[in-house]
Design a protein that fits this description.
Elements (H helix, E strand, L loop, with lengths): L15 H11 L3 E3 L10 E3 L5
Antiparallel strand pairs: 1-2
Length: 50
């Protein structure tokens, strides 16, 4: 049997704040701290910090 999993995905969007609000409200994702760099990149967790 095959399983599907992924660690992360990156999306390019026009309005980061609007997109973050959408994913938090509609998909109930939680924002987690970007520990990789000082960039403006924002991260959302699907589960287990991923």
């Amino acid at each position: 049997m095959h399983t599907f999993s992924f660690n992360h995905i990156a999306l390019s969007v026009k309005d980061v704040n609007e997109s973050i609000d959408f994913y938090k409200k509609v998909l109930q994702l939680t924002e987690i701290k970007n520990t990789a760099s000082n960039s403006k990149t924002r991260w959302l967790s699907i589960s287990e910090g991923k």
